[in-house]
Structures are given as C-alpha cells and as structure tokens.
Amino acid sequence: MDWGMKNRLSQVIQPDGHCFFLPIDHGYFQGPTRCLEKPGETIKPLLSFVDALFVTRGVLRAVVNPDNSKPIILRVSWATSMASGDLANEEITTSIEEIIRLNASAVGISVFIGSDYQRQTLLNLAHLVNDCEDYGIPVMAVTAVGKELEKRDARYLALSCRIAAELGARIVKTYWCEDFQKVVESCPVPVVMAGGPKCESEREVFEFVYDGMQKGAIGINLGRNVWQNAHPVAMARALQAIIHENATAKEAVEIFREVRAKCV
Ligand code: 5RP
C-alpha cells in the first residue's frame, strides 16, 4: 500500500485497529434531521470522543473549524431526497479535485444492492475507486437499503459487503445483524457498523455494538443513536469505551449513567 493511502487510513482507524466515526451527513437526503438542525452545535461536545466525521462538503465548509478538525470522511454520492422517488438513484456528486481541496482523509459512497439502481451505484463506486486510488484516498462503501430496512439480514449484507470490497472499497460500512460474523468473515476489508434509526434504549445500542465488535467489526459509524439521544455526550463516551477500551455492554451502561449524572 502506498504511503499516502496508509497515512490516510491511519488518520481514521486508530492504532488499536478500531474506529468511531460520527456521521452527520443525513441532511443530504433528509434535510434538517432532528437534532441535526444546527450540525455545528450538535458536534461541538462530541468531537473529543470520536475519530472522524462523516460529512458533506456543504456542512463541512459551513460549520466545521478547519483549524482544529477531526479527520474528514467526505460523503460524495447523493442527488435524491425523502421528498421524491427512489433513494437508491444516486450519482457521484463531488469531483476528485474537490475531495483533494477539502483534504479529505477518506470518502464515503452508497451502493444499493438488489435495487433498480444496483448497476448505477456499483459503477459509481468503481469510478470513485479509480479516481481515489490514484491519489491514495480510501473509499468507504456504504451498503445502503433506503427505506427498506427489513432487508438487513446476514445473507443480504454479506452479499452487499463482499461486492463493495471486490470493487475496491477500502472500508465497508454496513448494518449490524444476527449472525454478524457471517458478514465480516466473508468481507476481505474492514467492516464498520452503521446505526440506523434510533433504538428503544441505550442498552440495545451498546449490545449490538459490543456483539458486532466481538464478531470482527473494526468500529462504528453511528449518528442518530448518538446525537438524537437525550444525553449525547454520555452516549458518545460509552460507545468510545466499547470501541477503544473493550468495555462490555453492561460496563457501557454504567459509563453512560456516570457521565449523564455529571452532565445534568
Ligand atoms: C446514510 C448514511 C449515514 O451516515 C448512516 O445512516 C449512519 O447514520 P445512522 O447511525 O444515523 O444510521 O450513510 O446513508
């Protein structure tokens, strides 16, 4: 692997081999998502707990301080919205020059396996890998399901992750599921877990994150289950403990309670 690629990967994946990415890219199709109406305010208390921000170029320029930023994973596919049609109908929206200009440590792009736009989104990934590999920029593929959340089982996710890795993604982001080891074991590149809609309880989040880590994920890319929680700082600290300190779900609940008590 070339020095630039290694260096960028080491900015987003920590020396322990694990990572905690904070996605705030939701506005790219959801508009002003709850608790992300002012993304600059949302991230301020959370930045010290996370390893990288997953963000669009617009929000990056508008609210992220370039003098003191976490590594940036730039969202570079979109062109759909909740207000219309099929969420899978995405294109690459950001040029390689812009990716370099913004000094992104990595880029993120969605693929929608099994959708009407499978071919288009896989070709998007292939073209992005072609461009980014020339400059040593890692591509993170997001195995997206749009509104069809019920698709998220091990068979489907293993298929999606493997195809994304075969096309050259350096990291694959996917959903946690039962038998998650089947997804990780058949994917030749590191797998990061996304969160999905907010869970019923904090314990539920900690349990799936802990289980996924035990089964081989290298980390998380968790948004709504962090910043839509009533206590986002406690949530971020507890998740950091699972990712980087090998805390169990039970220990994470204790950490969450301790930090919440200090914050009120
Ligand atoms: C949307 C994304 C988001 O980054 C992803 O959904 C992670 O956020 P959350 O944990 O809120 O699901 O890629 O396609």
Description:
It is a single chain. This protein has one domain: Aldolase class I (TIM Barrel, Alpha-Beta Barrel), CATH 3.20.20. The chain is 43% helix and 15% strand. The radius of gyration is 17 Å and the shape is globular. The structure holds ribulose-5-phosphate. The site of ribulose-5-phosphate (5RP) has 14 residues, from helix 10.
Oligomer: single chain
The radius of gyration is 17 Å
The CATH superfamily name is Aldolase class I
Ligand roster? ribulose-5-phosphate
Structural class: alpha/beta
| Overall structural domain count | 1
Helices, by number, come to 12
SSE order, one letter for each helix or strand = HEHHEHEEEHEHEHEHEHEHHH
Beta content comes to: 15-25%
Q: How are strands sequenced across the largest beta sheet?
A: 1-2-3-6-7-8-9-10
> Which spans have pLDDT < 50 for at least 5 consecutive residues?
none
Question: What is the approximate shape?
Answer: globular
Architecture, according to CATH? Alpha-Beta Barrel
Helix content: 40-55%
